[in-house]
Every structure is written in structure tokens, then in C-alpha cells.
Amino acid sequence: MARIPLDPPRTALTRFAAWYSKRAYGKVIDPLLALGHNRKVLMTDSRFEMSLARWNKLDRHLKELAVMASAASIGCSWCMDFGYWEGRRNGMSHEKLHDVPFWRDSEVYTPLERDVMEYAEAMTATPPTVEDDLVERLRQSLGEAALVELTAMVAVENLRSRMNSALGLTSQGFKDSCDIPARPAA
């Protein structure tokens, strides 16, 4: 259960944000409702997220894997739920998204994807445990601009996941709208 009421004051800003959220995601997302209690935080976060959406030096699927690996390390069920939905919407396979929490034991990832998720986990650790050889492999594979974007995205996901977890935000059922239900046994 959320640790803050998900009924912010009804202002022009929160009504607009709710309208946009319904249009973009099919429902009003709980982080928006939580941030709606502080106009300046909501405005800053909204501008920041719109700016992030324009970053394009890092492959989208690698970015999604990094974000989800960070969210899994922190234990943010809201971010994992939304990340799965976002990944499926962008064409990632169910297997890759599903296996993120145990990527080391899964055989669905390429060496580069494994490096990206290892980097996300190492950055998310407190204190960070990033090693030089991993950064060099990523720099060689991705280039410097994409490596900087990867680093920034993992840092951003740390902000999102830690805030959502601290506020008690949990899954909103995004993943459920992606999965095809199993067929009943004959």
C-alpha cells in the first residue's frame, strides 16, 4: 500500500498530468499521483522525463535492460511492472524481460546485454562496484556517447526506483496487460 495518499490536490497541473498519463499509458500512473502533492517536484520530474525520452545514443533495448536490472536490484515492483510493459511495447521478447532478475542464469542474453546489466547492477550497489574492465568493454562496444547515456539512465532509474519504493508504490498491473494468458489444460 502506498505510503502517501494517491489523491493529490486537483489543480490544473494535476488534471493535465492525469489526462496525459491516461493518453500515454492507458491509466494514471501512481508515481504521478504521488508527485502531485508537490507542484515543483511534479513539474521538474515531468520536464526531466520528457527530456530523457529524446536521448538516442544508446540502443533502446539495451537501455530497457539496464533500467530493469537496476529496478530489480533495488526491488521496485512498480518499476519492474512498468518496465516490462514498456519493453513489450517496444518489441522486446517476453523471455528477455522476464529473465532480468536472474539474468546471470539465463541463456537469452548476448554478451553485450550481460555487460549492460552487470554495469547497471554495479552502479546500483551502495557503494557502486563498477570495475574498469567492464567500463572499457562497454566503451569499446557502445562508444563514449552511448556509455554516458547508459550511465545516466542507470542513475535516473536509481532515482525512480528508490523514490517509488520509499513511497510504497507497487505494481499497477501493466505487465498483466501484456501477457497472453496460458491456455487451460485440456
Describe the overall structure:
Helix content is 62%, strand content 0%. The protein is an all-alpha fold. The protein folds into two domains: 12-54, no CATH class; 60-166, AhpD-like. α4 runs antiparallel to α5 and α7 crosses α9.
The SS-based structural class is mainly alpha
Alpha-carbon distance between the two ends: 38 Å
Approximate strand percentage: under 5%
Largest sheet: none
Characterize the overall form.
globular
- The CATH architecture classification of the largest domain is Up-down Bundle
CATH topology of the largest domain: AhpD-like
**What's the level 1 CATH class of the largest domain?**
Mainly Alpha
The helical percent reads 55-70%
- The count of DSSP E runs of length 2 or more, i.e. the number of strands, is 0
Determine Rg (CA atoms, Å). Answer: 17 Å
Outline the low-pLDDT stretches. none
Provide the succession of SSEs: HHHHHHHHH
Task: Report the mean per-residue pLDDT as an integer.
Answer: 94
| Number of contiguous helices | 9
The CATH H-level superfamily of the largest domain is: AhpD-like
- The total domain count is 2
